[in-house]
Amino acid sequence: MMESTERNRVCGVERAGALDISLRKLFQDPRKILKPFIREGMAVADLGCGPGFFTIEMAKMVGKTGKVTAVDLQDGMLDIVRKKVSNSDLQNIIIFHKCHADKIELTESFDFILIFYMLHEVPDQSAFLNEVFYLLKPRGRVLIVEPKFHVTKNDFDSSKMIMEKTGYKIVEELKVFLSRSVVLEKNV
Ligand SMILES: C[S@@+](CC[C@H](N)C(=O)[O-])C[C@H]1O[C@@H](n2cnc3c(N)ncnc32)[C@H](O)[C@@H]1O
Prior knowledge:
Radius of gyration: 15 Å
Structural class: alpha/beta
Largest sheet: 7 strands, mixed
Number of helices: 7
Number of domains: 1
CATH topology: Rossmann fold
Strand order of the largest sheet: 3-2-1-4-5-7-6
Bound molecules: S-adenosylmethionine
CATH architecture: 3-Layer(aba) Sandwich
Distance between the termini: 26 Å
Number of strands: 7
Helix content: 25-40%
Shape: globular
CATH superfamily: Vaccinia Virus protein VP39
CATH class: Alpha Beta
């Protein structure tokens, strides 16, 4: 269990607007980042979806035949995403799931899971990554992206060690602006 510090304080709903500014698209374009991982018809999950900066694009990418599970521990964040899609067909593609800080509690399995700027907020990374592992389909992939301004190289290296110990294969280190990131595959 990781000690609770400033670094793993949960980003509150009052900061949702900062995650959703249009300027962010210029340096972290969801479609560009997710294109190699998501295809039409896939079942995907956005863990720690926040105000849905990535969720919306994920829903457009999987289309009517796919599903996006938007997961967050804060109702306020899920409500923001619900509101965004309330008048569109995307509401039929997105499933909302409120989880606990130490338990995701989903039973479906996924082709792809996104964990963007969220892992450092999780109290027990080992337990969390283990639970995520069992949510992945065989050959399923996970993209983990962490902010450089909160997560040092040493912190991220420690997380990578946990990932490998859990059974993931690190297949790539993706370049995302101001971020550290890895692509994981279920090593089966
Ligand atoms: C910094 S925000 C990032 C939101 C979004 N992924 C993005 O990049 O815009 C982190 C989000 O993760 C959520 N979160 C933190 N710990 C979590 C946990 N253990 N389980 C689920 N969600 C969590 C927070 O409520 C917050 O909405």
